[in-house]
């Protein structure tokens, strides 16, 4: 087994995106339609009418379903009727906070929201019931890759090695699935000037993936020798509040007491510095002024080692800072708390206690999906 955090941080899920990178409008549209179905959750993604409702093709419906889960905007649970094999999607509280009618940024017009989603995609939610990362290939390339310049073939090799070392043999995917992950990752973050006619949605992804504006990935050269470079630079469009939120959320799981060294925040696998491709000096430069504004936070320096210290629970501090940045969404009259949201959508609570379907039923659904793709 690998000494990385891959198995602890990420579920062994591969190529569930149908090679479509997330596009402008998808997440807001999905959240809006799911909310229309009320407090019991929604079987939207299993309906024959889903392509018409979402305004996309059938394979894109599967992709949208995956991305809403991967960004931790929905959680799914079995249908209450055991004879119905459809899974019910319930919107998470963070989805309502970001994408709801009174949310922070429903149409993702602020680049900070894309950074936030990028963090949610690559991280594991704090707590014993927190959802894991659902894109292990992404996790490997952002958190575990020992180099910044790499070809697609080298990405496939590196991801394959970590997957083989971190997961049981039964969870290791076919080589083609990892190849599709690499294809999707590059389409999601970089402007690929070479349109792949055999890749579904290749040209549209170039035009419609909002995550390209983060500037995390650049392509150099053409064909099989094309080099992909994960950039390390100051992030001018990354709001300090989003970065500090990510640092404090990471501290929930990995801090020692009421502090965590900035070096760990910048360099550890799974930490914000790796996710955002920022070095320690750049990370400090972004957050230090905001830290100075909060009585509960400070950055100390001892023998050249700088440490982020916090008084209070880091998760509560993280959300206070993030919510304040977006205009105090939670302070709106009647805006639900996370606890009220779970009471409204009991399916979110049921995920923790629901018995899993038997293996035969899961295999049947998998076979049906394969037949649909054929």
From TrEMBL:
The molecule here is called: DUF4007 family protein
Tell me where on the tree of life, at the top rank, the source sits. Bacteria
- Provide the DUF4007 domain boundaries: 14-326
């Amino acid at each position: 087994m690998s000494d990385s955090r891959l198995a602890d941080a990420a579920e062994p899920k591969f190529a569930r995106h149908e090679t479509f990178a997330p596009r402008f409008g998808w997440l807001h549209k999905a959240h809006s339609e799911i909310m229309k179905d009320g407090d019991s959750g929604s079987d939207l993604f299993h309906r024959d009418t889903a392509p018409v409702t979402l305004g996309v093709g059938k394979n894109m419906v599967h992709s949208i379903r995956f991305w809403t889960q991967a960004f931790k905007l929905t959680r799914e649970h079995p249908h209450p009727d055991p004879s119905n094999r459809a899974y019910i999607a319930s919107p998470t509280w963070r989805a309502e906070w970001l994408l709801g009618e009174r949310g922070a940024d429903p149409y993702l017009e602020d680049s900070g929201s894309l950074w936030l989603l990028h963090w949610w995609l690559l991280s594991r939610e704090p707590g014993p019931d927190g959802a894991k990362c659902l894109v292990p290939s992404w996790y490997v390339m952002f958190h575990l890759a020992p180099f910044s310049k790499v070809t697609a073939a080298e990405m496939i090799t590196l991801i394959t090695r970590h997957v083989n070392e971190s997961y049981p043999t039964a969870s290791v995917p076919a080589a083609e699935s990892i190849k599709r992950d690499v294809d999707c990752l590059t389409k999601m973050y970089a402007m690929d000037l070479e349109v792949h006619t055999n890749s579904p949605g290749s040209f549209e992804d170039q035009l419609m993936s909002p995550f390209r504006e983060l500037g995390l990935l650049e392509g150099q050269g053409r064909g099989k020798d094309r080099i992909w470079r994960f950039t390390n630079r100051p992030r001018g469009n990354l709001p300090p509040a989003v970065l500090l939120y990510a640092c404090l959320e990471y501290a929930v799981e990995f801090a020692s007491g009421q502090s965590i060294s900035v070096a760990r925040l910048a360099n550890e696998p799974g930490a914000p510095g790796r996710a955002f491709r920022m070095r320690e000096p750049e990370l400090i430069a972004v957050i230090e002024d905001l830290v100075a504004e909060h009585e509960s936070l400070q950055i100390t320096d001892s023998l050249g080692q700088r440490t982020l210290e916090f008084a209070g629970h880091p998760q509560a501090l993280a959300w206070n800072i993030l919510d304040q940045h977006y205009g105090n969404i939670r302070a709106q009259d009647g805006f639900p708390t996370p606890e009220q949201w779970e009471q409204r959508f009991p399916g979110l609570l049921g995920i923790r206690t629901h018995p899993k379907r038997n293996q035969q039923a899961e295999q049947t659904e998998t076979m049906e999906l394969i037949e649909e793709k054929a």
